[in-house]
Write a structure and sequence with these properties.
By secondary structure, this protein is α/β, with parallel strands linked by helices. Helices cover 37% and strands 16% of the residues. The longest helix has 23 residues. Pyridoxal-5'-phosphate binds next to helix 4.
Length: 434
């Protein structure tokens, strides 16, 4: 499907212009290709499993907008709903039935989400859930895990500090030391370290937040017992447990990792898939806690474009199709097979590598002979190795997220024949570059 027309413009030209008007030329850092080098590819359109570059070149898309597009780009069924919605209203700033329909759909299927509030991004969902946890418990500290990402919320842009166990340090300029001090950081995969930090801080600790499937610094598959232990310790110490399911929610199962692990968090945050590609986020959980949110309770949270009707209807259309067509089973089978074949190719041409996967999420890393459960365990040369693989694939028309720490996604539009074709391209790419 290569385009024969003369390109109107090139990524090169567009990036030069972008650098003049946006920091680093982008509106979200990873898009800048900083960790893989080179000029970012600009895209003009997309359909199904494919992206079309501004130069007319076609790419198989394994980034899928970093996760929201579980059905692929412009799914026909969702597209019809979006077209219809555009003619109804773009925004009301008032009550409407569309968010109600999505809220009822979710709460009727996910019993631990008794009430919910829609927002416009994953970051906003997390930020609000944390405020709510503080307001509800009347405590101030939050514990997060090193190797989990929760959006660009100030208090969570922290890393493990040196010195006393659990103390955090700012991980971004602009996040003050005072803010960082309200957050504790524990390592993943270490029950004892976690227990110690909780016991030393339980009188101040409002909540523990975790990505139950850490998928933002590689795919760090956790032991179920570890997450179970966290839930247990939280309960025993009257600390709220927040599952950040912005990436895993509606992606690994309708009920996300809470369903997969059979663990019930007090609060949960969603984003990405919930809006089917539109800016939607959500936080929800126990009624008793959610009723602390304004206007029924004292914790303030609001949004001009919250529950945007187009996003609400696109999200609902996406989730309905996912449920009706048993998308999870299909995606899981295809991802397993694809990961297996990809790993074989990487091992043949690049060296000992692993492709770990869960549901429709996959991640490649060099094989050190043991499972990587913490981001500290990722080999130091990982980013450098990924660079070469990334560009080899890009040249052949296979697009991965432009960082070795980002995971890959399959969407329902990645049919078996498209995956077959992709593996052939990947083989060619690796053969000619390694
Ligand atoms: C993507 C992500 C976020 C942030 O969501 P945005 O919509 O990018 O603000 C938060 N938490 C997790 C687990 C995520 O994957």
């Amino acid at each position: 499907m290569s385009s024969q027309t003369t390109p109107q413009t090139t990524s090169d030209e567009l990036f030069t212009r972008s650098l003049k008007v946006a920091p680093g030329g982008v509106h979200s850092p990873v898009r800048a290709f900083k960790s893989v080098g080179g000029i970012p590819q600009f895209f003009a359109s997309a359909k199904g499993a494919y992206l079309k570059g501004v130069e007319g070149k076609q790419f198989v898309d394994f980034c899928q907008s970093f996760g929201p597009l579980i059905l692929g780009h412009l799914d026909d069924e969702v597209l019809d709903v979006v077209k219809e919605s555009v003619h109804l209203a773009w925004s009301f700033g008032a009550c409407e039935p569309y968010s109600l329909e999505l809220a009822e759909w979710i709460t009727s299927r996910i019993p631990w989400v008794e009430k919910l509030r829609f927002v416009s991004s994953g970051t906003e969902a997390v930020m609000s859930a944390i405020r709510l946890a503080r307001g509800y418990t009347k405590k101030n500290k939050i514990l997060k895990f090193s190797g989990c990402y929760h959006g660009h919320v100030d208090s969570l842009l922290v890393k493990a500090g040196s010195g006393l166990a659990g103390l955090a340090a700012s991980d971004s300029s602009g996040v003050s030391d005072n803010t960082a001090r309200e957050t504790l950081v524990a390592p993943l995969d270490d029950e004892k370290a976690f227990l110690d930090i909780v016991q030393n801080n339980k009188n101040d600790l409002a909540a523990v937040i975790i990505e139950p499937l850490p998928a933002n610094y590689g795919l760090l598959l956790q032991r179920k017992e570890f997450i179970k232990k966290i839930a247990e310790v939280c309960k025993q110490n009257s600390v709220l447990l927040i599952f950040d399911e912005v990436i895993s929610g509606f992606r690994v199962a309708l009920g996300g990792m809470a369903e997969v692990l059979d663990i019930r968090p007090d609060l949960v945050t969603y984003g990405k898939v919930i809006g089917g590609g539109f800016p939607v986020g959500c936080y929800g959980g126990k009624k008793e806690i959610m009723d602390f949110v304004a206007p029924s309770g004292p914790v303030y949270q609001a949004g001009t474009l919250s529950a945007n009707p187009i996003g609400m209807r696109a999200g609902l259309a996406t989730l309905k199709k996912v449920e009706r067509e048993k998308v999870y089973q299909t995606l899981e089978m295809r991802t397993e097979k694809f990961s297996f074949e990809l790993e074989k190719l990487l091992c043949e041409y690049v060296g000992p590598m692993k492709v770990v996967h869960q549901a429709s999420i996959f991640w490649m890393h060099s094989d050190s002979g043991r499972s990587i459960r913490r981001f500290e365990d990722i080999s130091k040369d990982h980013a450098e190795n990924f660079k070469k693989i990334f560009h080899a694939l890009l040249d052949q028309g296979v697009y991965l997220a432009p960082s070795g720490y980002e995971v890959g996604f399959l969407g329902y539009a990645h049919t078996e024949s498209i995956l077959h074709e992709s593996l052939a391209k990947i083989k060619m790419a690796l053969k000619s570059s390694f």
